[in-house]
User: Which sequence fits this backbone?
């Protein structure tokens, strides 16, 4: 390998492994290209304001003199900002060092000499592909007014208006919808072009020899045909012969058909893309959350869990395969995204750092096999995320734990404990039924005994929970194997104990405030 090739490869490896360089490049990429990045919208608004101010100054300049300060701002400052933006977009579009490294590794794998010139050519080609794209050309033309001596070049400022398309999400969505029907629209355009061409030739042949006809040239004929097929009908150019009017009737019918086909294509494209647009909006809303709980599988249990978490002020995101369940979750005010929780692709499209954003992932499918697959998928994504799952069959608890679940909840165990403690007590079971069905807003609430409570309350009897119409079900103490139901009043409290009360949420909140104030 010659000196130039070695310098190129080593330099590429250095850039790829330089954390500061990669961090800066990722920052600008997110700022310019990543719609989920929280600060991108501020850049978009700023650029739109620059564009509008630039066009406003141009319009003002048509009939009124413009202050030199505004002139210089429009010609140089705004253009310089657009130039910096253009260079940054060109920089983050692709990685030259990555392309060179990929080419080098491929040559090494095939035991052939590293082709330095070909690697550079591929790298520069990736940049050239961006430079000839329509958005990049518009960006470049928007900079042209900076470098001019002729005043006519200032008309290129109007190209700055087209830059609004880049910063407006609605226009971007519309453009993507149009692109999805490119073949159909191309076919329709060819049909309309043929109709316009044939109609223009026919009307020219019918009308051009008539001295009273306003159609005296082929350009007039094309103008009339285009205006007529678009159903605009200005009325400034009209045929006067019978044959010309016959041609007009045919093209009018053709114009109505073209517009009908065009409308049906756009409507069908919107219907096909509406689910994707809603999903994009949900992902953007999710990315704005500081932290949230991810519920995989919107089952009946998941609905209860989501309701409880929301009541406690927690943020919830639902992931489910069923479109009906996703719609139901959205109607309940939740951020819901359709996708298969057992597939890694469903999580990758979130485009977030799961370890930073997701507090806990809840596997709440009604099938233990699905919960196992969800756990395995999540663990392939991250080993640190807290994972909780329900189990329908006691034999699957071990499998769920082996798949990476941190905590498995087996509902039948809880039911058995309740049956043992409250057997023969129909009133107690009625209370739990009311709690489960949501009647009278009865809920189970947990409270942790901290050092502030320990200063004033030493045993269960000293806690004034009855004054707030709360029922103490029991408590859990570190080191104990089981939850202790209906503890005696003389049982002492210890810091870290978790007490479980049955009652209304607002009373629990008042009770919590009361015991943290201290005894009166």
Assistant:
């Amino acid at each position: 390998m010659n000196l130039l090739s070695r310098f190129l490869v080593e330099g590429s490896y250095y850039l790829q492994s330089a954390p500061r360089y990669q961090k800066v490049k990722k920052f600008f990429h997110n700022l310019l290209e990543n719609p989920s990045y929280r600060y991108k919208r501020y850049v978009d608004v700023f650029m739109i304001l620059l564009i509008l101010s630039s066009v406003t100054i141009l319009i003002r300049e048509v009939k009124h003199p413009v202050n030199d300060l505004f002139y210089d701002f429009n010609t140089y400052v705004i253009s310089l900002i657009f130039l910096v933006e253009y260079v940054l977009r060109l920089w983050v579009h692709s990685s030259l060092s990555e392309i060179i490294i990929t080419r080098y590794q491929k040559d090494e794998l095939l035991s052939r000499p590293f082709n330095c010139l070909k690697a550079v050519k591929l790298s520069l080609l990736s940049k050239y592909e961006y430079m000839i794209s329509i958005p990049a050309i518009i960006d470049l033309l928007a900079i042209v007014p900076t470098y001019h001596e002729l005043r006519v070049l200032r008309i290129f400022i109007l190209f700055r208006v087209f830059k609004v398309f880049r910063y407006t999400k609605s226009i971007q969505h519309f453009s993507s919808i149009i692109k999805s029907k490119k073949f159909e629209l191309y076919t329709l355009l060819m049909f309309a072009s043929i109709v316009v061409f044939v109609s223009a030739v026919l009307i020219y042949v019918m009308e051009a020899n008539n001295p009273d006809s306003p159609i005296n040239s082929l350009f007039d004929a094309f103008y009339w045909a285009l205006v007529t097929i678009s159903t605009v009908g200005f009325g400034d150019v009209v045929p006067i012969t019978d044959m010309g009017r016959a041609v007009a009737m045919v093209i009018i019918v053709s114009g109505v058909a073209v517009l009908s086909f065009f409308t049906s294509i756009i409507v069908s494209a919107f219907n096909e893309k509406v689910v994707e647009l809603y999903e994009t909006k949900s992902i953007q809303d999710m990315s704005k959350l500081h932290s949230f709980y991810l519920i995989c599988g919107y089952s009946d249990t998941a609905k209860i869990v989501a309701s409880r978490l929301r009541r406690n002020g927690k943020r919830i995101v639902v992931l489910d395969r069923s479109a009906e369940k996703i719609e139901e979750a959205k109607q309940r005010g939740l951020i819901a995204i359709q996708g298969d929780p057992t597939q890694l692709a469903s999580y990758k499209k979130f485009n977030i750092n799961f370890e930073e954003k997701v507090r806990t992932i809840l596997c709440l499918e009604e099938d233990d096999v699905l919960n196992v697959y969800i756990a395995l998928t999540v663990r392939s994504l991250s080993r640190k995320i807290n994972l909780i799952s329900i189990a329908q069959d006691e034999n699957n608890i071990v499998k769920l734990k082996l798949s990476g679940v941190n905590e498995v909840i087996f509902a039948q165990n809880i039911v058995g404990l309740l049956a043992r403690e409250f057997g023969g007590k129909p009133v107690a079971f009625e209370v739990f039924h009311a709690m489960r069905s949501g009647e009278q807003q009865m809920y189970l609430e947990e409270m942790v005994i901290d050092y502030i409570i320990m200063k004033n309350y030493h045993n269960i009897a000293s806690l004034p929970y009855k004054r707030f119409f709360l029922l103490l079900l029991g408590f859990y103490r570190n080191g104990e194997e089981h939850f202790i139901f209906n503890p005696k009043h003389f049982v002492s409290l210890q810091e870290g104990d978790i007490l479980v009360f049955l009652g209304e949420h607002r009373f629990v909140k008042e009770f919590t405030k009361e015991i943290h104030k201290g005894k009166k």
Notes: Residues 147-153 have pLDDT under 50 and may be disordered.
